[in-house]
# Entry
Amino acid sequence: MAVAAAAAAGLPTLDSLGLNPQQFQIAVQQQQQQQQQQILQLQQQKTSHQHLYPYTTNDLNQLLSPSSVTSQQQYLAAAAAAAAAAVAQASGVSTPSATLSQQQGGVVYPLTNNNVQWTEEWRENMLQYAHTLYSTTPRNPELLTILHTIHNAYPDHLPTLLLLACVYYTYQDYQSSLRYNQLILKFDPHYVEAMSNIGTTLRSMGRTTEAEQWWYQAVKLRPGYWDAVENLVGVLCSTVSNNNSNTNINDTSKHQDEKGSTKISVSTPSDNAVTTGINGLLSGSGVSSTLTSNGSTNNNGNAISIENNGNSNGVSSSSSSSGKQGYPRYKEALRVCEFVELYFFKGQETTLNGPIKAPKQLPIHQLPRMQNLFYAKGNLKYALGDIVGARREYEKGLELVFGGTNLVAISNHIALACGSTAVMEATQYGKLLDSSALPLVLLQPDQAIRIIQIAFSQSNGILPGLVGLNGGTAATTTTTTTTNNNAGTGGGNDNSNNNTNALQQANQTTSTILLTLAKLFQDMMNPSTPAIAAAAADTAESGVTPTMALLLPLYYLSLALHPSPSTANNLGIILSNISGASAALAVKLPQQPQQQQQTMTGTMLAMQYYMYGLQLDNRHPHLYTNLGSLLKDMGHLNEAVSMYEKAVECNPRFDVALANLGNAIKDMGRVQDSVQWYRRAVEVNPNFVDAVCGLVNSLGGVCDWRGRGGVGNEATVDQLGNCYPAAGDKNARSGWIGRVVDIVEKQLDEGAVWGVGVLKMQVDQQGKSLGEQLAEILVQANAAVSQNDSSRLVELWTKRLAHFSEQSVNSNKKNEGGWVIRLIERIMRRLQRNWYLEQYGTTLRSDLPQTAIMVTKDLSQRYQRPLIPSSLSAPPVPTVLPFHTFTYPLSAREVRLISHRNALRISHGTLTSSWVASHVYPPPPPPAPRLKIGYVSSDFNNHPLAHLMQSVFGFHDTHKYQVFCYATTPSDHSPYRQKIEREAESFIDVSSWSNQHVVERIISDGIHVLVNLNGYTKGARNEIFAARPSPVQCSFMGFAGTLGGGWCDWIIADPIVCPPEMVSCEIWRQRQEGKRNLHDHYHHSSSLLFEEGGDFEGDVDPEENTDDFVYTEKFIYMPHSYFVNDHKQGFREEHDQNNGNGVDKNNTSTVALMLQPPPPPPPHADDHEGLWAVEEERRWSMRQEVFPNLPSDVVIFANFNQLYKLEPSTFRMWLRILERVPNGILWLLRFPPAGERHLRRCATEWAGAQTANRVIFTDVAPKHVHIHRGRVADIFLDTPECNAHTTAADILWSGTPIVTYPKYMHKMCSRVGASIAQATGYGKEMIVATEQEYEDRAVNLALGLKYTYETSNHGKTQRRGHGELMLLRKRLFLTRENSRLFDTCRWTRNLERGFTEAWRRWVTAEEFEDIHHVTNNTAGCIWVTDPDD
# Structure
């Protein structure tokens, strides 16, 4: 058995030791007899040994119980004694005879023959053998026998006592472990290894307070004793209860330090995955649960981790300095680290920004431990909110291994090694490029993993500070073989292994620090908390700002040191966001000859890193998820779904993959199917914002309102689907929708810290700040064309800049970065206009064509565009998109800011792109004589926008206006696309063009007014507008709300749909007027002094904490309605040749006939009664076809909107209407089909089966059928939250009245129905002001409807309707030919008047309040007047 055990453990066999098997058997039997006698003696006696921490009688009885020693253990112990004898014999030492033992402190060990002479050589051989056993099988039964034999011979040999204590600790015999460690201290009171082990043992016993004192004592005696340091710091940072034992005694390995010592190491750091925040690196207590078995430290550089309890800065207010057990004490831990650092760096300053080198007194193989110290300090400072200090500590940890080189120099070196000419030129002059000037370096995975070999080839791919560890060849440290405190072991092979282990650990630790620093840089580039934002501002002032060029080398180096799938994943994420222009200008290593040469883009590199990561780990869910997102962005939706499904297969509880799978499935049109994936994501992570918002969107899209809750004074729905009426509490908030509002508020608040400190960033050597520079540029631009007092302007801008320097509770929440973007865009418009004035003067129109501006080098410099600082990262945007605000109960400020933050993201991304010119784009020549209008849209196909506007482009007056259509999507060959292409004067398909190409074409075409027909809708190319290619830029139709960006000057609307009370410039004027009334003694120009906070002239700061306004743009207010349509031209019943009811049963020819001109009016066109009689007959006939079994007296309420526009309050109101109109039905569309069952359930539960059975669903019909069958409905019930837009026009064209409620002043989408209804001339009969009025109006119209039946001259029965509803229907139908609503040509003329006035105001500066002095009679908005009104 002993032979087998020895072989299994890789130990010497009996034969190799020269021991006869018979002798061995006799020795075993003798040893068994001795142990049995010892146990009997121990049971009869009590120990008299005195302990610092005395044992109880029960403890000792349990320890000495005979049952604790099995026969097998007795046999192995005896075998160990025989083995010990064999070792002595093999060493040439006399083997002592084993005799009966005596008790000493309750420990059993064999006595030796007093006649035998023991030698130190025998002792060291035996101890070395024991260490070998301990390092491989720490619970080997032979160990105690061997060690007690040595201890009996050498009672005061401390290394033997130390290893004895460790072995007992391994068996969890903590009392014996304590006894031997304390025995060491009786011989040597300063033996720190024993002190540290006592601390570890006490902590395992739950006596943490006492443990701390021992560790403190050890650290004070020897600050360089790393075990004690790390254990002390770990327990100070731990939140583990005092009574918990945290032991891990199985993960063991032997490591040698300069004294040849051994330590049972803590586990090595895990895979270097970067989590969602730096706090993800702070996990676990970091307290070693193992003992040092020799008199020194090991060199296993395990990171000290700090638990942060989920707080944003890693420390709660109650625990940061409480000093109570069970709570982290970060400040105390930091003081310990600083004490140790001071010990090693005596006389050196390590707190400054200058790079540090490893101290001379630090053995080189302990370098990883020193790195750990700085890493711990960085984590501690981060937890305490000192972000800048944390960054410095991480950098110090890197400087140690890079030979005293700072981060900027390292990045320069990497760029130089990759062939950067810019760095090479700087190097020739002995200079380094700073972080803002560093070139971007793009490496493929196979290049990244070789970057250290490439960059540090002179040191054979070893980091400069670790050269001495390469293969153990360094001569910087030596091993001490004999001291009074440790075992005298050591040698060349051990030292070589020691150095090799240290090199591996240093690489591992360096990789971890690189990742931590990289994540911190990413956070500082996109700050989400005030602390990080402040740190970013402080860093900007210091001049070493985190940039992408500084960030990527950190990841490359980390991957090279420790190839990790998580690092590859993070690199893929970063690279996927690099634009094509940036990638084209980046520094790259040449591709391998065998590789196919191809253009390297960020997307391509991201794909490569994801695939490389999957080679390392083909079960990595993050890689599959991000690869899926990349494929989704590339348009490969089915492949993306497959990747997400693979990620969920690898980790069924991976919230991101689950949510992404839900998004992809929803994008495929399977809204109901997406719900399950969102639900699973939320179940896993209830705080996952994307999953919560996705779930709410999908549930709302299919009208599954269970658990929706409510916000403010609206109906609420509980988890069971019960609906409760509004309680009148405006502050109420519950359920899913309440959570969404909470999310919006939180994200908007967090995003307000973006760019903190950027205005104070120095931009030149004279110390001028960015804010001062931008203000100076704008003042100079305005001074050239304005009579404003320059001194007043300087005073004004001084106050504005001071606003962002004020220190207050919310001093960091002013969106300083957003203000900078707004200011830069303001400057761009002023410079562009100045350029026009210089070239063309104030010419509005010219009879002769003027020469276009040719941009020269001089002009380029004179009209240089102010640049966004490279340190200003992309602004954060809320999860809730602008389009989602249509149906969410959000305030005016929240709606405004969601659009504004998205606009800032677009502006930042565009203006920092390399494809945008360094100067503002030159303005076009004056109209000669035609004003050039450009329309940009992705919807010139079979889309509602094309349905509505298809005739507008051809209706423009070609004598005065030249129209250009820029289509950003390829043709679908629909009749709508063909009509627009044919009738527009210039139609350009730019679907395959880059943004740069489109912008250059717009400039080449000389567009004066550029119209954005997308806004925040699918397919938008808003970057084109952010580049500012045109002097006047407008938004129309595509998006029913504010765009919130400086790249949109005007919205085309009307005062009903967008009340002037909610417009920024009008609010600014009102406030100015109020201030003038209070300060009459100010003169004309004194209005300049009235600006406050982040306001500009005519432009209230969007970040203002009020709901006073929602629109940041000015308005071109159209008469009648802004809502254009083409029903009069394109959707006429006379085109249908199949039957008299307007329905094309074959669904073939009607669409094509839309393109034909209107037929001549019928012979009885002036006979209104005759026309109405024919229309009534058509209605009745179509009704019988659509609802053949419906009784003739039934009133049909209808709504044909998509179901996402419907919410519980409205549906409950509709059910009340049905309850009050017994002969009424509600006609809805399966839009989507999954909504039907949820609405039927709600109707049954809320109003009963009788009412629910009167809710009828039909499928969605083609456009032409949809319009014609609108006449079947009697009353169209609009959705107040988000009105019918195109559908409302469709319905009114058919003559069917609507009931609409403009619910919100600040939501354009909730007021479109009122705008359209008002334009018919009968708005008062269809527009209501309250929910109750809505219900009453619908009910009264329905109950007043009566029918009579007559027989015609041909013997056919005809139905005739009577009552207020029928009279309204008749008027709507008979007046539609002359209605302003359907007069598309008139509407186009009015639009042209608006464009002309917008152009005039730009040329004359009447648009600009800071140039043109505002009078009381001047309005910021344009009010177009129809000359026929």
In short: The radius of gyration is 41 Å. The longest strand covers residues 931-937. DSSP finds 54 helices and 21 strands in the chain.
